[in-house]
C-alpha cells in the first residue's frame, strides 16, 4: 500500500482548521474504522442508517495518508471536514498537536483485534496472506505488521486522552454501553439533540452496528467482543499476555477482553 509523503502532512502548508474532525483507529483498521466513521457521520449529520447504506461513506470521509483522493483534494473539501487516519500521533499534522481540530480515537482490545486483522488480511486479494494465525499473531506481537506497533500507537494517543480536543473511545463500549458513547460524541462534536432525538439517535446507532457486525460479507462474529477465545490456544494466550504485560505494563489503559 502506498502513502502520501509524511513531510507533506507535517508541513505548515497543510492546515487543519478548528472545525475539522479527524478519526483514528489503529486498533480497527477495517471493521472498527467503518463502524466509527458511520456512527460519527450519523451523529454529526443527523443522518439515518438507511441514508448511510445508500452512499459510499468512504468518499465522504477520505483517509489522510492515502494517495487517493490525495491531500490536494482533501484541502479543497468544505469545512467541517470529516477525515480518517491510522497514523501514529507523532506523524500527525502540527495543527492537530496544537489542538486546532477535534480528534476521535478508537482502540480495540488487541486479542480481538489481531483475530479480526488476520481475517481481514486473508480476505483481500491485495494482501492475500496465506500464513497461519499463529504466525500472524507472532508478527503482531513483534510489531511487524502495517502501521507499526499497535502497543506504541495506542499508548501515544492514550497519553493525550485528557487533551480538550481528543476523545478516546473503546470499541467494546459500543457494545457494552452505546448510549453513553453516543452522548459523549454529541457533547464532543457540539451537536444539539433533545431527549427524544437522542434516544432515536441511539436506536439508529444500534441498528447501524447490527448491520455492520452481521453483514453477510463478514466472517461470522468478526465484530463481536471476545472472538479471540475461539481461536487462541492456551499457550498462545499465555504468550500474548506476557508480551502485553511487557509492552503495556507502565500504561494505565485497560480493555474489556470479553463482555
Automatic annotation (TrEMBL):
**What's in the keyword line of the UniProt record?**
Transferase
Entry annotated with the keyword Transferase: yes
Give the E.C. number(s).
2.8.2.-
InterPro entries assigned to the protein according to its UniProt record, in alphabetical order: P-loop_NTPase (IPR027417), Sulfotransferase_dom (IPR000863)
Q: Name one GO cellular component term.
A: mitochondrion
Q: Which residues form the Sulfotransferase domain?
A: 32-251
One GO term of the biological process aspect:
sulfur compound metabolic process
GO molecular function terms noted in the UniProt entry: identical protein binding; sulfotransferase activity
Enzyme class, spelled out: transferase
Q: Which family does it belong to?
A: Belongs to the sulfotransferase 1 family.
**UniProt protein name:** Sulfotransferase
The scientific name of the source species is Serinus canaria
Gene encoding the protein: SULT4A1
Amino acid at each position: 500500500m502506498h502513502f502520501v509523503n509524511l513531510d507533506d502532512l507535517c508541513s505548515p502548508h497543510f492546515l487543519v482548521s478548528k472545525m475539522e474532525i479527524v478519526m483514528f483507529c489503529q486498533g480497527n483498521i477495517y471493521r472498527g474504522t467503518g463502524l466509527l466513521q458511520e456512527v460519527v457521520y450519523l451523529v454529526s449529520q443527523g443522518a439515518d442508517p438507511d441514508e448511510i447504506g445508500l452512499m459510499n461513506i468512504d468518499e465522504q470521509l477520505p483517509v489522510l495518508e492515502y494517495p487517493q483522493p490525495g491531500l490536494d483534494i482533501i484541502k479543497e473539501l468544505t469545512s467541517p471536514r470529516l477525515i480518517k487516519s491510522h497514523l501514529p500521533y507523532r506523524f500527525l499534522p502540527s495543527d492537530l498537536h496544537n489542538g486546532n481540530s477535534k480528534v476521535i480515537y478508537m482502540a480495540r482490545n488487541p486479542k480481538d483485534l489481531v483475530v479480526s486483522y488476520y481475517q481481514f488480511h486473508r480476505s483481500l486479494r491485495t494482501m492475500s496472506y496465506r500464513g497461519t494465525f499463529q504466525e500472524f499473531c507472532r508478527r503482531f506481537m513483534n510489531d511487524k505488521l502495517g502501521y507499526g506497533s499497535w502497543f506504541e500507537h495506542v499508548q501515544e494517543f492514550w497519553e493525550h486522552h485528557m487533551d480538550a480536543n481528543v476523545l478516546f473511545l473503546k470499541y467494546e463500549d459500543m457494545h457494552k454501553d452505546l448510549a453513553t458513547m453516543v452522548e459523549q460524541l454529541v457533547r464532543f462534536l457540539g451537536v444539539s439533540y433533545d431527549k427524544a432525538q437522542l434516544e432515536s439517535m441511539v436506536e439508529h446507532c444500534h441498528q447501524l452496528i447490527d448491520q455492520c457486525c452481521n453483514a453477510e460479507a463478514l466472517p461470522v462474529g468478526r465484530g463481536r467482543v471476545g472472538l479471540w477465545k475461539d481461536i487462541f490456544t492456551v499457550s498462545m494466550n499465555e504468550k500474548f499476555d506476557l508480551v502485553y504485560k511487557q509492552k503495556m505494563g507502565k500504561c494505565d489503559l485497560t480493555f474489556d477482553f470479553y463482555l
